[in-house]
Amino acid sequence: MGYIKRFYPNITYAYHLNTFAATKIAIRKNVLPIILIRNPLDSEASLSIMNSYYQKGNLLDEDFLNETLKDYIKYYDFVLKREE
Question: CB–CB of 65/57 below 8 Å?
Fold first, then answer.
C-alpha cells in the first residue's frame, strides 16, 4: 500500500512519469499540475534501472541515456518557462 493511500485513504490521485502531453492537458484544463524537479543524474539513474528491468536491456545503454537526458532538458525547459 502506498503512503498516500495509507495516510489519506479518501483522496483520489494519479501518478506517472512527467510528460509533455499530461502537463499540457492539465494546463489546458486549468488543473494545477504538481511537478517535482529532480536532479538529472538521479532521474537518469532511475530511468536507466527501470528501462533495463522492463526491456531486459543494458543498464548503461548509451543511446537510451542520451535520449532520456535530451527529453529531461526539453521537458523541464518547457515547465520552467511556464512557472507561475
Answer: no
For residue 23, the one-letter residue type is T
Query: How many residues comprise the chain?
Result: 84
Number of domains in the chain: 1
Q: How far apart are CA 25 and CA 8, in angstroms?
A: 26
Grid coordinates representing 53 are 528491468
- Evaluate whether 44 touches 59 at the Cβ level (below 8 Å): no
**CA angle, 5 then 53 then 2, to 5°:** 5
Domain containing 18 equals 3-81
Distance CA 24, CA 7 (A): 30
pLDDT digits (tens, 9 = 90+) for 16-70: 566 788 888 888 888 877 788 888 888 888 877 777 777 776 667 788 788 888 8
